[in-house]
Amino acid sequence: MSFSKKKEMAFGIIALLFGVFYLFMTYQIDSKPGMVDARTVPKILGFLMVVLGGVQLFETFKLKHAEEEVGAIDTKTVIKTSFLILTYIAIFERAGFLLSTMIFLFLQFEVLAPNQMKERKHHLIYVLIAVLVAIFVYLSFRYGLKIMLPQGLITFI
After folding, report:
1. Buried b (16+ CB within 10 A) or exposed e, 99-133
2. Neighbouring residues of 26: CB distance < 8 A, sequence distance ≥ 6
3. What is the distance between the alpha carbons of residues 110 and 126, in angstroms, rounded to a whole number?
4. CB neighbours (10 Å) of residue 31?
5. How far apart are CA 103 and CA 110, in angstroms?
6. Is residue 69 predicted with pLDDT exceeding 60?
């Protein structure tokens, strides 16, 4: 068994065991009657950790992995992404969640897109995805979780 496969198997076992432990510990949290309480999100996270650990183990045994060559690190992409993250953090409070997230997502799509995907028609798809994701997350936090995110320049939502 290759070193890479052993690492993947170890990660799967650790993730699975941690997920089971985490899920068990969620039952120690006090709860109140109702559908959504303090245990809900931790239970979901624990369940996902167990599932992902199981999938990792299954994939480790199922697939015969060919040793992949590790490609060179794309330094330009790392620098651009780091700059975008720092800029996002810097403008987050002033511009607000919606505007800063839309801009960040669009620019990150541009940075990570392969060269053949940098056509005008793909820009429209990137804008659409960035706008829809930002609005969905904002509305989920505001109305679903009752958590206010900075409004910034866009105040009509």
Report:
1. bbbbbbbbbbbebeeeeeeeeeeeeeebeeebeee
2. 39, 42, 43, 46
3. 8
4. 13
5. 11
6. no
Q: What is the pLDDT of residues 4-35, one digit of tens each?
A: 778 888 888 999 999 999 999 988 888 877 77
Q: Count other C-beta atoms under 10 Å from residue 3's C-beta.
A: 8
- What's the pTM? 0.57
- Give the separation between CA 143 and CA 149, rounded to whole angstroms: 11
Residues 6+ apart with CB under 8 A from 124: none
Q: Which two tokens stand for residue 2?
A: 């290759």
Query: What is the rounded average pLDDT for all residues in the chain?
Result: 83
Cβ 126 vs Cβ 110: under 8 Å = yes
- The domain limits of the chain are 3-62, 75-144
Please give the structure tokens belonging to residue 31: 């709860």
| Residue 65 per-residue DSSP state | P
Name the token pair of 12.
């799967």
**CA-CA distance, 97 to 88, in Å (whole number)?**
9
Distances (CA, A) of 52 to 21, 31, 33, 61, 62: 14, 26, 29, 14, 15
